[in-house]
Write a structure and sequence with these properties.
With 660 residues, this protein is mainly beta. It contains 6 helices and 35 strands.
């Protein structure tokens, strides 16, 4: 291990001192997005109209495939760490899955909407996308778009503090193979073929395996993941399918470390879309999609001196069905309308339990030697979970007008109405003005409202860890943003001031009941604000540097980072070599829990990057490094007794890619 780390340090250090070659070949463009392309990249996630970073009426961050490769990360959630106002750490809920930190909020309840190719991953039992899909390999990704701030006016519930849309590859033919430390190996591939002007197909697949690193608690953090998506375009018809399966056993589950811990999840998605009309003025599409989510999990709850350990967890299944019709229309006066209607049904179809103690006669979990099972068993018809089998029916409609008021000023006016049967109804308006002062300076004033519907776990859970609260109301937020955007031929910079008014936030709180440790409440209303800065300077075709900085003016909700920053630099050393280095910095987190435990993590930095060697026109080698110096650090999670969840140490891997 030490030899592997030293070799990586030496290789990157030597490469960093090499002279930059001014005239790179066209093949070198595989390494970096040109600055002109960066400034003019098309954004449609935030407005349903084609916009650039200058004209889009939201606060946006975009990462291309080339930029993601340069970061050296492996999982899509890790890209969040380079987005102003967002972070991703490892914590505990059901399995040690990625946790979102967004604009001073770390409540672990699905306040960021995650989508793949515009289709939501967040579901109705836990709310968080990462519980059911914790690993999304970056090799199959073409682009990731982030909305920083409210997105419910277009996307409904969960688009609360942000949206992450992952766009997978559809036009590449390539194979990649990887080996790394901690017993890592895997393979990914992308394939596409155009049969005619009317017919094309694409396929992406990935397999990943890690034995995991060792931790003082006597466990490792192994990973086993499969990802597959495919599509067929035939004339006006699009068919899409996706399947993924992930195992995250052993490390941490339901606040306990144990080699017996189990966490397995899978998702199956199918979708169909038909384009009825597509001309210069009007585009009209209809679509239907179906997603099935499964989770099979069990975590250590208690240990005993005289009987075996007690483990418990969910064996749940949820489904999501959605019918949607969208249109866009351009009027003669250049106004643009984007509108849609949607009906969705989110249903928890299975609510079983996985446990190491169970009395099949009384249908209860009884911790007694007489009811100890041989390992962990699944009970699919568990009476105490029967109330979780709930269906959310939602009828939604949205509309947005883009109004070019003058050559300098563009206005956006829109809203979405969501009626969630038997739960809540929410109107989510948005207003934005984009004023172009001159060719370099643009200012934006933006206002939006968002919400998050409580999920079945928060409403109806009933186990030894949490007990639900069926009286919960939807969370809501009102956000005002002032944005300055600056661009020249070499430099792009953004400054964002935001102010959030948060209402009816759902938080997990300790309970005095003997039946569970935690419950959920609409515990508080509050405000928070902050500033987000980012800039990119490309001094030449061969060198670029990007920096981000986030500062919150109030303490975060639940202990999280009040200040954090990142630096990303890329050097094209020749027509065949590129080195990229990045540094993440996070401020001190310190908190005392109600139980008297005290958590403190001093400020720390994590070094990472990549080194690429273009072997020929069709192949390349890449060395990736995360936490290259092996920094030991903890992230805070309120469910852990002492609050500390160990972060990953060095991740080193060698990748070979072949294009065909």
């Amino acid at each position: 291990m030490d030899l592997f780390r030293c070799s990586a340090l030496f290789t990157i250090a030597v490469a960093s001192t090499s002279p930059v070659v001014a005239n790179a070949t066209e093949e070198q463009d595989l390494f970096s997005l040109s600055f002109e392309d960066l400034l003019n990249v098309q954004v449609d996630i935030a407005s349903k109209t084609n916009e650039t970073l200058s004209s889009v009426p939201s606060t946006i961050s975009i990462f291309s495939r080339k930029q993601i490769q340069a970061l050296g990360v492996d999982n899509a959630y890790e890209v969040m760490n380079f987005v102003p106002g967002m972070q991703s750490t490892r914590g505990d809920w059901v399995g040690a899955v990625p946790k979102d930190h967004a604009r001073g909020v770390y409540l672990d309840s699905g306040n960021v909407l995650v989508m793949i190719n515009g289709e939501r991953i967040n579901e109705s039992s836990f709310g968080k996308a990462s519980v059911y899909l914790p690993y999304i390999p970056v090799e199959v990704i073409e682009k990731i778009e982030f909305i920083r701030g409210p997105g419910s006016a277009l996307y409904g519930s969960n688009a609360f503090l942000g949206v992450m849309n992952i766009v997978t590859s559809k036009e590449r033919n390539a194979l990649q193979f990887v080996v790394g430390n901690n017993g890592r190996y895997g393979a990914t591939g992308q394939f596409n073929r155009i049969f005619s002007d009317n017919t094309r197909i694409f396929v992406n697949f990935a397999y990943e395996h890690k034995d995991g690193e060792s931790y003082p608690q006597g466990v490792k953090d192994p990973l086993e993941a499969i990802y597959l998506d495919a599509g067929i375009d035939y004339k006006k018809l699009q068919l899409r399918a996706r399947y993924n399966e992930t195992s995250l056993d052993e490390f941490l589950n339901l606040a306990g470390y144990s080699k017996q811990n189990q966490h397995n999840s899978d998702n199956t998605f199918v979708g169909i879309k038909y384009n009825w009309i597509n001309n210069d003025k009007l585009k009209l599409d209809s679509s239907y999609s179906f997603t099935k989510h499964n989770i099979s999990s069990a975590g250590l709850i208690a240990t005993f001196d005289d009987i075996p350990d007690f483990l418990v967890g969910p064996a749940w299944q949820t489904t999501d069905s959605k019918f949607e019709t969208e249109l866009s229309y351009q009027f003669d006066n250049q106004w643009q309308l984007a509108a849609g209607i949607e009906y969705s049904e989110a249903k928890q179809t299975e609510a079983g339990v996985r446990t190491s103690y169970y009395d099949f006669d009384s249908e209860q979990i009884i911790i007694d030697p007489a009811f100890e099972q041989q390992g962990i068993v699944s009970v699919m018809d568990f009476p105490e979970f029967s109330s979780l089998k709930f269906t959310f029916e939602t009828l939604s409609a949205y509309g947005q007008l883009k109004i070019p008021y003058s050559d300098a000023l563009t206005l956006f006016i829109g809203a979405r109405y969501d009626d969630v049967k038997d739960i809540d109804s929410k109107l989510s308006p948005r207003l934005a003005g984009v004023y172009k002062i001159n060719s370099e300076h643009t200012v934006k004033l933006q206002y939006g409202e968002s919400f998050r519907t409580p999920v079945t776990n928060e409403l109806f859970s009933n186990d030894d860890v949490t007990i639900g609260n069926p009286s919960l109301r939807s969370e809501s937020i009102k956000t005002t943003e002032l944005v300055w955007h600056y661009k020249t031929s070499e430099l792009q910079a953004n400054a964002v001031l935001f102010y959030n008014e948060l209402n009816d936030f759902i938080n997990i709180e300790p309970t005095l009941s003997d039946d569970a440790l935690f419950t959920f409440t609409n515990s508080f209303n509050t405000q928070n604000s902050g500033i987000e800065l980012d800039s990119t300077w490309q001094s030449s075709k061969n060198f670029s540097i990007t920096g981000t900085y986030t500062q919150y003016f109030e303490d975060p909700i639940n202990a999280s980072f009040k200040r954090f920053a990142s630096i990303i630099s890329s050097y094209n050393l020749s027509d065949s070599w590129q080195v990229s280095l990045n540094l993440l910095w996070r401020d001190t987190v310190e908190v005392s829990s109600e139980t008297g435990a005290h958590f403190k993590q001093s400020a720390y930095s994590l070094l990472g990057g990549s080194l690429k060697w273009q072997l020929n026109n069709n192949s390349q080698l890449m060395l990736k490094a995360e936490n290259l110096l092996g920094k030991k650090y903890n992230a805070f999670d309120p469910r852990i007794d002492n609050g500390a969840v160990a972060g990953t140490t060095e991740e080193l891997s060698l990748h070979y890619q072949f294009n065909f």
